[in-house]
Fold:
Amino acid sequence: MSDSVRVFVPRETSALSLGADEIAASIVAVGVGRRLDIDLVRNGSWGMSWLEPLVEVVADGKRIAYGPVTADDVAGLFDAGFLSGGDHPLKLGPTSEIPYLRNQDRWTFRRCGLIEPLSVADYRTNGGFDGLENALRLGSEWTLTEVRDSGLRGRGGAGFPTGIKWRTVADAPADQKYIACNADEGDSGTFSDRMLMEGDPFTLIEGMLIAGFAVGANKGYVYLRSEYPLARSVFSKALSVARDSGWLGRDIQGSGFDFDIDLHLGAGSYVCGEETAMLESLEGKAGLIRYKPPLPAIEGLFGKPTVVNNVVTLASVPEILARGAAEYAGLGTGRSKGTLAFQLAGNIKRGGLVEKAFGLSLRELIEDWGGGTSSGRALRAVQVGGPLGAYFPAELLDTPLDYEAFVQAGGMIGHGGVVVFDDRVDMAEQARFAMEFCAVESCGKCTPCRIGSVRGVEVIDRIIANEDRAANMALLKDLCDTMVDGSLCAMGGMTPFPVRSAVQYFPGDFARDFERDFGKDLENAFEKDLVDGTAVPPKAGVNP
Ligand SMILES: Cc1cc2nc3c(=O)[nH]c(=O)nc-3n(C[C@H](O)[C@H](O)[C@H](O)COP(=O)(O)O)c2cc1C
Ligand code: SF4
Structure:
């Protein structure tokens, strides 16, 4: 096959939804018809979703990109000589030179899009398993120290320091310990876990192996959301390939270290992404929140010490151990070290995944990478951090993307999802949606969340309908306070964040006929303390 031309067509959920399979089939068919020798590779996505399906060819040793391609474009691409990098209106030039990609700090996602996801050889050639080899050679103490010194914090939501979590499990005396990977990815506008599992699954396997080696666990579970059938298929195959090639199972690469991984599917509950509900679900029970303490690090899965980490957290570790903690810690700002894979979604021109060191502003992310709204209209609100994140108005766009700065501004970075809304959004409806989402997804274990969210929807409905609005605004404030103070977990405890921010920054949406009906009084009813003194998420950082 030495004269064959390599052509890459992603097998990734968003590319598939846009016809990538048809394009791949068409490329093969035209190639056969024209007696051309094509080596078709199904890679993952580089994360430039607005260019999907992004087709690449290797010409003069470089990957040249074309996109977004449709099946109808394929014959024209052949006519234009795309197999040797020929000019065509869809030609984007060398993939690595596309500014969206070139200006990122690709660390965790550096192989995503680049490699053939199920090829161990490709993975190895591109630095795969180097981190694990260093860990096995230098020992678990070295590994724990490196992870601590890297400053890595959990990418699932709470931003808890990973090194401290791992140390707690390593020090817990037990005959059995577990690694539980949280791949439930329920936050609105997020897809980084999925993209990694579809495009570079061995990185997650390697991260789990390192975690197991560091803390003394020989068994791992991945809790994957059921809405990700492709991630399920790719990751299951990756587990088999890893086992067959000696990178999973007994005596990994002759090191004496045993570790295996089971893949478990969730059943579509948002709250099962909360770590204790996830553990309940993994044990085969209903996904109810557990009281803490005990922390999962002490008594987790089946009552044993358990590392619960997000996909991206675990997948960041191999490169940290390959390149060294100092290099990772040198990226970012303040206590937000390293990089985060931000995900741009909603009303945004260039949606996709952007891995950048912490510290850039929300504005840079949305304007420089995202290109502003896809509608071309003015941006009105941004929700960062999933359905429990606050809505920021355009005036807060200069907030730096770092955990502490975001909390100080009343928001949270969470899993890095950024959902953009233009000036047509109705923020009273968004506030209602936050309460309704909580009512639907509540696990029901505690009253402020189970009942409070239902009452919250009713109160907001009355406000929107202009029924005794001032009194209902005061009631909403009270309800939010009760949910924040009295909920058992962040589901009920943080649902008030989007609600309060909508009231604070977009009061007009709750009082469209306020002037006519109430004069100045209603404005006073938006009591300032509704939003004061509550910037710190109540449960942030409490869950090692
Ligand atoms: C309601 C709720 C939903 C959550 N959903 C997820 C999720 O889908 N994925 C995730 O990694 N963490 C989720 N979390 C955070 C987890 O409880 C936990 O903090 C995280 O898995 C720990 O891993 P990390 O330290 O690597 O972030 C959720 C938390 C809450 C309160
Ligand atoms: S806050 Fe909601 S989701 Fe969390 S324990 Fe209470 S009822 Fe369950």
